[in-house]
Amino acid sequence: MFPPKREHPKEKTQLHPRNKHRERYDFKLLIRSCPELAQFVSLNKFDDESIDFFNPEAVKMLNRALLKQYYNIDYWDIPQGYLCPPIPGRADYIHYIADLLGTTNKDVIPKGEAIKCFDIGAGANCVYPIIGTAEYGWSFVGSDIDPVAIKSAGKIVELNPSLKGKVDLRLQNRPKDIFRGIIKEDEMFDLTICNPPFHASLAEARSGSVRKLTNLTKKNIAKPILNFGGQNSELWCEGGEERFVQNMIIQSRQFATSCFLFSTLISKEANLRSVYESLRKAEAREVKTIPMGQGNKISRIVAWTFLSREQQEEWIGARWNRI
């Protein structure tokens, strides 16, 4: 016998107003888009249709259905063991950074292929370019240090007409470089986005995955499950999120006039102080912080530019007003 059916809010109001995932998942609709999802959908203890979020294959199939239904993606897959990202949270980043571009352009969000976005660490899933091209028509360059991730993302682009010709994937052969070796001479980007590695070591990453699974299942989990947490380069790097973003800021200074707006996610609030200090030392002209929330998780986007107001106006006039 089921407990009393829960009353759910009609909308997840913490998500961005334009986010297509503010309402609860409509599994009947999603199954029509992706019939393979049906085998993973059942009634939970509250008599609601849901999937087992502990099952990596179920989560991957949910993502496939969401991308098909809302972003016109016919083919999407990732290799075993690679990060399966939460689509609503990825969409939030794209919408909030679009708003930030709009604030510099009389509240008009620049759209179309002429707007070029650099996704640092695009991963095997290619989700940021998928959402950005569908919602705003932007073109993307995606980088990664992992050849398998680049190959997987490349297949997604190749097999989806909506992405072909709009997403360029580039392997970073020098892992310590973020922009150099990817940004070509005289190449201009309107924005950069990044979801940096969170943890500072493999052991910390594994511990985090175990903790996440324990919280999700309310059971003691001894080790992370394959295909749930992500690859090493997706989850951790020396010094973790703080060091990665500090390096990004230092290196972004060398490309100050190649990009209108740099940005990154910051998951740990404790890292903000050192991030702001690095931006001060790098002499960023403007810094913006945008809070975001998905469920119980709070994160934020930190964005910066080295361009003066006059240079920003020149950029907008030369690139955006021609669209």
Task: Walk me through this protein's architecture.
It is a single chain. The chain is of the alpha/beta class and about 325 residues long. The protein has one domain: Rossmann fold, CATH 3.40.50.150. The chain has 10 helices and 9 strands. The strands form 2 sheets. Strands 5-4-3-6-7-9-8 form a 7-stranded mixed beta sheet, sandwiched between helices. It has a two-stranded antiparallel sheet with strand order 1-2. Helix 1 crosses helix 2, helix 3 (about 85-105) packs across helix 4 and helix 8 packs parallel to helix 9. The protein is globular, with a radius of gyration of 20 Å.
What is the number of helical segments per DSSP (H or I, 4+ residues)?
A: 10
Order of strands across the main sheet: 5-4-3-6-7-9-8
The SSE order reads: HEEHHEHEHEEHHHEHEEH
Helix content: 25-40%
Which architecture does the CATH hierarchy give at level 2? 3-Layer(aba) Sandwich
CATH domain topology: Rossmann fold
For CATH, the homologous superfamily is named as Vaccinia Virus protein VP39
Total domain units: 1
Average residue-wise pLDDT: 88
